[in-house]
Amino acid sequence: MTPLLEVQNLTKSYPVGRKGLFGKRMMQVLRDVSLSVHPGEVLGLVGESGSGKSTIGRAVLRLIGADSGTIRFEGQDLSAISSTDLRRLRKDMQIIFQDPYASLDPRKTIRAVLTEALDTHKLHLGTARAERLIGLMEMVGLNPTFLDRRPHEFSGGQRQRIGIARALAVEPKFIVCDEAVSALDVSIQAQVLNLLADLRAKTGISLLFISHDLSVVRYISDRVMVLYLGKVMEVGPADQIHFDPEHPYTAALISAEPSLKHTSQRIRLTGEIPSPLTPPSGCVFRTRCPYALPACAETVPPLRDAGQGRMKACIRDDIL
Amino acid sequence: MTAIPVRATRKTRLLPGFPRCMILPTLLLAALILIPFAAPLITGADPVQIAVRDRLAPPSFAHWLGQDEFGRDRLARVLYGGQVSLTVAFVATTLACIVGTLFGLIGAYFRGPFEFLTTRLSDVVLCFPPILLALLVVTLFGPGAGTLVAVLSVLYFPSFARIAFSEALRVSSLDFVEASRALGTPSHRIVLGTILPNIAGPVSVQYSLTAAAAITIESGLSFLGLGVVPPAPSWGQMIRGARQFMSQDPLGILIPCVALTLTIYAINFFCDRLRDTLDPKGALGGGKDETSVPVAAGMVPADETADVVASVRDLRLDLMRPGGPVNVIEDVSLTLRANQCTALVGESGSGKSLTSLALMGLLPGAVRQARGALRLRRKSGEMVDLGALNAKELEGLRGNDVAMIFQEPMTSLNPIHKVGAQMVEAILSHRAMSPSDARARAISLLELVGINEPARRFDGYPHEMSGGMRQRVMIAMALTCEPRLLIADEPTTALDVTIQAEIIELLQRLRTEYANGLSLLFISHNLGIVAKIADRVAVMYSGQVVEEGPAAQVLNDPHHPYTVALLESMPSSHEDLHSARGDRLRAISGTPPLLDARPSGCTFHNRCPIAVSSCADARPPLFVSADGDRQVRCFRAPEAGLEAAR
Amino acid sequence: MLEFLLRRLAAAIVMLLVVGTIIFSLLVIVPGDPAELLLSTGGGSATQEAIQNLRNEMGLDKPILAQYFGFLANTAQFDFGTSIVDGSSIADNIALRLPRTLEIIAVGAILALLLAIPAGTLAGLRGGGRFDVIASAVNALLTSIPGFVVGTLFIYFFAQVLGVLPAGGYVAFAADPAQHLQMLILPATTVALHLATIIFRMTRASVLEMRGHDWVRTATAKGLRRSLVVRHHILRNALGPVITVAGLQLGILLGSTVLIEFVYNWPGLSGMLVTAVEQRDYPTVRAIILTVAAIFIGINLMIDILYSLLDPRVRLQ
Questions:
Q1: Which CATH code, of 3.40.50.1220, 3.60.21.10, 1.10.3720.10, 3.40.1280.10, is assigned to B20-278?
Q2: Which of C160, C232, C259 sits opposite B247 (nearest CB)?
């Protein structure tokens, strides 16, 4: 099966501050990231702050440019197509944001927000429009009579539903969910997660689900990718990654996650996450890894096959 | 034509109801702008017709404001002079506004060279005091209204460009602009349809400010005789002319001065109100330094044994709003015991933070304690009632007997003081100690909380540290005076999971290792963390404690349907469920009620899966378990074997 | 810190160069012959000979680049040339008058800071209280009165009606200190009043904003005395934005003092400037504006350095 989205060797850095009087300091946020999302699949992206997970979400939609690497959507190279074609292609790929307050224009009614989406791609014109708007509101569990209200009249959870309706309006094949449930209270978070789960069951949509919450990602994703300092640490089926991590970072992350059950002993990491300005040589995780060997400082460990559809970027097999 | 941005603002944001505080300034401004242009209707006199015989004539029926040093009608001169001043100012401001805003928008949206031009241009123009630049141009081109309009618009367009640029930059980084781009909306529609309406507010404020400044400069130049060319009237010129005769004829000088001042005042007044309306945050809200004082001493509870370090009894807090007080905390009681960690759990807006702030005597100014008692045991062993203490005694208590750490380590430390200085200042305010001893103590505390190279960090600034380190510093700072009770308000919410685990471990370790043991009041929305650290749990919903008891019992065998729902909706408690297999989380419907719209009866009844019709009638009391160790605020609690208290 | 200083200094020098270039190029972009333009006061045209003389004198006959570098080189040595009206040295004239202008600005600025910072702090701390409401209302009214109007009204009340202070004029300090100070009172107060309204506003806003920060709550939670919280955690932080605005306003004041000096007949730069503008003495006007712009850039450089001492984060960026 050909992937819906295929990303190869994505690299991205940002200029930060200055070096000396004139030089610019570059902060590398993505190092050689490759991933693929198949039709109907949910890929979870997990990582702590500075892991570059949000940057990936925006780069695959070409909302920000990458330094190098290719992004193919349905076989088309996104970096090679014209801006007109890219705009047309945007109908198929959408995004849902974290902050339910910043993601809606305070001056626009819900109708205006949804209409902008439909107008841009000339969808459901004329009399079909009203019906479509009502259909969208019902799909995300909002009362259609709310269409003429402005964002400030809604709660955080309701706003998030509006954001989902905006993304669904153009009937995309693929949505990036950038921490889409992280800002919500736990009882509301469950409602929105159920909504997303229903949508994928009904429409067969593909999701790139970005979150720092491992349990949420495990529940919603088919496969999970773990990132650390802009590098892929481990990829594999969600349940396997969660219950049987092979990479020491994944294991540490999962063992640190607070849970109601008294789980096994926590894997202690030493120190803080290094600054992306001065990343460690070799394996970026080695400075905090309890199993690091001298060899870890020398070469960057490749992402290699670990069997059962899993990949990991660690030179050791004798741990965990 | 003259007030495009202002009108645009109203259309988009202020339309539904024109804000009441804008009515007076708008009317005043409109009147002062329109009256000069209605001059032919008000007076038939010619502003430039000289009548030498009537020099400095006092007000008469034919000349309501008298005549000036050339016998010209003063009323006509003030009105027609206003026309000139206002036209020059508003035409120049409007030109500057349109050009500058376009520059700023283009600079912010397309970046690159546009950005450089926009930002640097205003830096350069700012180097020239406006009136001097105007004089320079007047030297070259000679005085006149046309020169003034040209020079003022050149002078002011960079400030519009700068405001529009920085605002547009802020707005275009917001998610909703990103969403428009992701939808494929064309650039020009994003800039004009989404960004422009959202920067209209600050730009219109700048418009009013600039118009006022332009009038000042125009009249100033005319006053120097370098602005509007005589005999055309202008306010500046009238003041210049009347100056020589001020002792004989004070009226001559007062009239244009008042006209000028009133006009500028009206514009400023309008501008101030506009700013307040657009940015209510800038208007007065209680600062975080402002605290309301607890009410007078409450009654002493009977069950206060020696191991109680703090107790909250029947606390009721009201939020003071213009429409009247809104009850936000209702009948909250808590007992904190020595060496015990009590967790206060709930979703945002449940009132858990307010309850903890009340125990510190740190309630925001807008919150009033309406009822109840807050009691705290001092290190001397004596139990004090916070309501009976004055502000000075509260200062002696905070940080000394009870300390607190907050959610946002990035903003909780003052960025301009060194970390060590902030710790030493806390020590010295409670202990008589030499600064060098205080320093040694602070460094040893930094070491205790696991900071590497504590002596170097002592002399460092907060911005040189990561979030996890700053939270450690906050903890060290809280421990400086060996408090008995530490209140931690969501101390790990802003941190990454691996760092969060370390901070929780640190707090655990301190509870046993530190001094004579530390009691913790731990506020969190995360039940997983609570399970790790807490001995007792109190669950709050909509300003009330709905369930309270030993942590293990509450989390493993919850009695209140809200606690059940909280646990059920956590994905981490359902490791067997997966969305792809068609499993769904057991979520409860609805959202927590708004503070001013709490339902009657049980506040949870409209979301409760087991509610019965009587739940809507009365607030449920606390039902107590047989051993007295658990309490549940639910009418259906007796089914689990609990009894109504007292 | 050294790198920060160097960077700021370099930026200031670049800014000076840009300012000089702009002032120079104004003469180039003027349509027609600048010499003819400058001599055409009141519509009459000057003789061909006079125009040629002026062209020589201002070096307008040389190629543009030569003019430009000559102008920069002379300016850098504080050689502004001579007045085209009376042939006197412009630099000498500025050196004589600039200190008088700086005197009223300095005295005015000190008065303004002494008045506005405490008042603004008090108003900010009691945001919405009675003092704040009254002080802010008075301030809004005062802001709306242009400086030359204040000056004119002051003369009317204090000199004409009450007769307690001189209406204007100047006596050197060395000649008669008492009278010098007496004549300084009104102009300095007028400058101070204008500056104070702006500083008051900024201090109040800044204090109000700082009060809302988390670290203020932290400081209170530590049990610090209220006065210490205000001084260390509100006022210290609020001062940065205030001095930035004050610096900017000082620069603008260098311009608006022209009007105030004119009102009070104070023989600072203003008299020289107004006469020069009236007589279209371009080299003099240009020299004065360059001087003021240079002072402004200097003030801002000092403010930047002061700010970086107040707030360590500034040094990073």
A1: 1.10.3720.10
A2: C160
